[in-house]
User: Which sequence fits this backbone?
């Protein structure tokens, strides 16, 4: 395996002391990989990546980014450290224009680099160009996700962390989001992705982990996991079921 | 009806509007109504007065600048006063508001600001007594400018100063990274952190802008009316009315709201008597909110 970018070891995290939601989860993400974290509802997937991004208090374990310990780093320093997070909902500033949404995230870039970088994002996400002066709150669900991802990518992150980018979107936009993620994969950006939509996520991912009750319980090559009986058991409950609905996506 | 109310209203409106900018910023970014904002005005004015007196005591009497009633010492003192008021706001946030804010209950912060307001005001009364005082006792002759309107040079200068400051704050909010960060924080504090905005530093900028503008508004009142410990507290209701009328979070809204309330009050004095001036501004406020609950420049959260 190539160089490890994100290395999470025995992570424990939770909002209240003594009530851990994440209970010793470990994953690694190598450079250029798309790693998917799957799991049933309430498995702590969301809390797990929020803890990595500095948004849920960490009570144990370590997070290394490019060999550097970022476990205790405050959320606002994460982009500077190289980790860009895209929350599941409310991931744009609704009253600011599309362009200002991108610009406001450029705090860590060199001033003269910013205009070119914004144009690069428009080139990668052509849907946003026509809307550059539009208030972001007027965008469609799929375009909002694009803007949120563009805003995260604009700072050249070492790893892009996405929390269920397809959640709450209509089927049309879900496929749009996964097309976008496939495009990101081609560009060589390292991605850590949490998804409910297991089938679609495994289709674009390299490797995947299954998180159950706050622990990583299973790991494998993404393309093989879909038919892995252990996953079906962990993911869908104790009894493996025949209907492959994609696990409540 | 004499058109003089237009000048009076614009002046009162400028004072209200400059104060309302601070109110609207604190409300939208820190999510609480700062009832001590009026007292920042009064403290800024007394600080400016103290610096003017200190300059007077060191360099002797300074002749006023041509048509104005004041000379360079007041301008220097105003800048010092603005810095002082900004520091006062930062200090109050550090020792009081930030601690309560971290506990997450907005109403406690509001009540604390009410207490801070009373404490600040009492300290002024204790130090300077409640007797009114003035920057200058010289009487300015107002010059006629047509349509039965008279205006003094001081009034023209202060209207221009207001326009420049409002434009500067507007440009800061819309054209700079600091301003965009402030907008971002007011719209979604969690996301602001995620995109790398240091919330603590944006909060500091908010207090500095609010405090400095409160000082300017106070000094305007001091130059055109008089200086009293209650001068800021008395402006509190019109300032909040202006901020709400204009739409919380909007700088142009706060200023326009201030001007509308200032003009309405001044017009009301002529038409139905001075005792009703506050009532008139609140009827306008209620009427606007009845038609447009988010205020003139307010935007619905989506």
Assistant:
């Amino acid at each position: 395996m190539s160089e490890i970018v994100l290395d999470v070891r025995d992570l424990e995290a939770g909002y209240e002391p003594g009530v851990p939601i994440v209970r010793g989860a470990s994953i690694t993400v190598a450079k250029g990989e798309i790693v998917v974290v799957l799991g049933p509802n309430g498995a702590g997937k969301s809390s797990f990546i929020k803890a990595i991004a500095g948004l849920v208090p960490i009570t144990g374990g370590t997070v290394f980014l490019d060999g550097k310990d970022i476990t205790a780093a405050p959320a606002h320093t994460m982009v500077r450290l190289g980790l860009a997070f895209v929350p599941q909902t409310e991931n744009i500033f609704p009253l600011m224009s599309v362009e200002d949404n991108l610009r406001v995230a450029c705090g860590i870039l060199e001033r003269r680099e910013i205009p070119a970088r914004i144009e690069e994002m428009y080139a990668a996400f052509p849907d946003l160009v026509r809307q550059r002066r539009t208030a972001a709150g007027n965008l469609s669900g799929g375009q909002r996700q694009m803007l949120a991802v563009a805003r995260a990518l604009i700072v050249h992150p070492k790893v892009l962390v996405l929390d269920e980018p397809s959640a709450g979107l209509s089927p049309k936009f879900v496929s749009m989001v996964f097309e976008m993620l496939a495009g990101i994969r081609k560009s060589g950006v390292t991605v850590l992705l949490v998804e409910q939509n297991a089938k679609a996520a495994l289709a674009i991912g390299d490797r995947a982990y299954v998180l159950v009750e706050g622990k990583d319980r299973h790991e494998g090559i993404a393309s093989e996991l879909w038919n892995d009986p252990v996953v079906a058991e962990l993911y869908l409950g104790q009894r493996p079921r025949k209907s492959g609905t994609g696990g409540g996506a | 009806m004499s058109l003089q109310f237009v000048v009076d209203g614009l002046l009162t409106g400028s004072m209200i509007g400059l104060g309302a900018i601070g109110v609207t910023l604190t409300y939208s970014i820190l999510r609480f109504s700062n009832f001590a904002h009026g007292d920042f005005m009064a403290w800024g004015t007394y600080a400016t007065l103290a610096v003017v007196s200190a300059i007077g005591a060191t360099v002797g009497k300074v002749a006023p600048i041509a048509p104005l009633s004041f000379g360079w010492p007041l301008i220097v003192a105003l800048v010092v006063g603005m810095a002082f008021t900004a520091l006062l706001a930062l200090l109050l946030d550090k020792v009081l508001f930030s601690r309560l804010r971290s506990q997450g209950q907005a109403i406690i912060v509001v009540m604390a600001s009410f207490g801070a307001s009373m404490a600040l005001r009492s300290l002024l009364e204790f130090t300077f007594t409640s007797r009114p005082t003035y920057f200058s006792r010289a009487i300015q002759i107002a010059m006629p400018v047509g349509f039965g309107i008279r205006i003094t040079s001081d009034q023209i200068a202060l209207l221009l100063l207001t326009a420049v400051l409002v434009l500067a704050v507007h440009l800061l909010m819309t054209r700079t990274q600091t301003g965009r960060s402030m907008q971002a924080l007011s719209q979604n504090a969690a996301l602001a952190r995620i995109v790398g905005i240091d919330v603590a530093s944006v909060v500091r900028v908010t207090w500095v802008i609010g405090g400095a503008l409160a000082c300017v508004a106070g000094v305007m009142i001091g130059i055109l009316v008089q200086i009293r410990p209650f001068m800021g507290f008395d402006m509190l209701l019109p300032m909040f009315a202006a901020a709400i009328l204009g739409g919380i979070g909007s700088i142009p809204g706060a200023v326009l709201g201030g001007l509308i309330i200032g003009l309405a009050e001044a017009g009301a004095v002529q038409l139905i008597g001075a005792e009703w001036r506050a009532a008139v501004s609140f009827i306008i406020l209620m009427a606007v909110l009845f038609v447009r609950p988010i205020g003139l420049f307010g935007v619905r959260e989506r």
Residues 50 and 61 of chain A are 14 Å apart (CA to CA).
